[in-house]
Amino acid sequence: MTTTSTEIHGICKDGFQRVKEAFASNFADHGDVGAALALVVDGEIVVDIWGGHADAQRTQLWEQDTIVNVFSTTKGVVATCANRLIEEGRLDPEAPVARYWPEFAQAGKETLPVKYILNHRAGLPAIDNLLPREATYEWAPFIEALAAQKPWWEPGTKHGYHTVTFGHLVGELVRRVTRTSVGTYWRTEIAEPAGIDFHIGFGPELDGRCAEVIPAPLQMPDLNHPLGKAILDPSSITFKSYMVTPEPMLNPAYMNSRQWRGAEIPAGNGHGNARALARMYGALATGGSIDGFQILASSTVVEASMEQSYGSDAVVFYPTRFGRGYALAVPEYALNQGSTLFGHGGLGGSFGYADPVARLGFSYTMNKMISSPVDIDPRWRAMFDSVYASL
Q1: 3 state DSSP class of 212
Q2: Annotated active-site positions, please?
Q3: Using N-to-C axis directions, what is the helix angle for 74-87 and 274-284, rounded to 10°?
């Protein structure tokens, strides 16, 4: 833990001081090294703050434009891409995946609909055999393995978090429909026109403002919880959902490498900052547009954020809830009273969410990861409480 106060920079408008205080307490109470928090209400940025350091050695300050890997928070961005294509009539959620991706029609998946990919009901959270280590950053080997994979359960009968496979499954649908990669589609069709500083795969030109991810210390899983037992069992779906290659794709050795940053691993290697994610979700919470650019129509947002999966998760064994690509607030965790949030959180602590009832977009990004596989990240509750108490 830090023992000295951390200077917080940026904008905090009147009435939102307690949000800044909750953010600042993460440095003192939870040992944050560098982080940012942004809150957009009714289309207005009311909080845009940052502080700390971008590296573990604390030699480089976290700046206004610092970006960082947000892991599964990326999935919400990928969901936005898919829902935009659905809105445009280019992707039908009820149609078989094989309509767009013919090679997918293997191992009983001929009629598996697109919506099961988006709501984690496809039964494809893992592949049977590990990919070669050298294929970690390549697209084709992963896609070929998913096309050949037999579902782990009858699609549609239950849901299970598609930890790593979600990004490639949705990303390949985007690629087949648009003839460009999901990272390129996001950048050219949404991020650049909307002014959203978020990237799925980028070149060395952005390395200078990219924070170093600081992994959580390794710890023994809780063997009293089914997830703890499953994560240690090489034959389990849970183990295989994380171990796609002989070394896990979330290995600390990968997280800060040029290869990791440059690849498109759309379930988990998006890089951005809180301002960018709050900007996107703030728009989705208030009609779907930013400065005249329409990301999604309000009707699409309503459809995409409707519950399609909810209950005990077949992969991670705790309650999860999903709409059409977005993670939804889980009542058991009670992060907001009405459970109207949608978006996504990421391994280690980052998140980006919209609340269309409160008309807000809210995001937190940081470089020090905290391991909390079952419980809500200890930093989250105070930040959420402070936001809703300020409205």
Answers
A1: coil
A2: 72
A3: 30
